[in-house]
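--- STAGE predict ---
source: upstream dedup step, 1 unique chain passed
mode: sequence only
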Amino acid sequence: MNFSQEFIAFACAQGVLRFGEFTTKAGRQSPYFFNAGLFNDGASLGRLCDYYALAIQNSGLHVDVIFGPAYKGIPLAAGTAIALARLGQNIPFAYNRKEAKDHGEGGTLVGAPLAGNVLIIDDVITAGTSVRESVELIRAAGAKPAGVVIALDRQECGQSPLSAVQEVENSYGIPVVSVARLADLIEYLSGSIELESRLDAVRAYREKYGVQAGDMNQR
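--- STAGE serialize ---
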């Protein structure tokens, strides 16, 4: 089992990844639901960030700063910086405020200066709004967006034949790295005695809404 499938097993054990009948923001009936907000204690958040660190190292991206967009990206940026430091890669991190301060250090940015290649970290990409705002902040600071790292890529088409991840990659010319993808989930389910009964529904959902087969291998 690779780290992507280990992450899926961990997410299932934490109740972060659940199976049943769920309605997505797009109004689709999905056989699974991923709620990263349930990584809400020290142990689970720490382990989640360990997986982010592995995904970053596995990607081969050159990263000078990790940036966590407010609010969900803030603990992810800090935790992943700690996890990378334990792996011998000490990378500074930063995040933004939703509202600018007019006292103290002021401004909207907190932490390390945005310089060089800046990696954006988030839980998932849905509409891409957080990524767009982050890219604008990074470029305004004179730095370069190096890419985005997320926990789960649903590999699901939006209004166009492209997934939200592919639209981000095409719009900003940056790679999106995921800890796990829908393809990894299906592979995990196919080898799970306990959850194999969920496999057909997830496969059917992919057939209906998934990106083109040739794109399913992209991480």
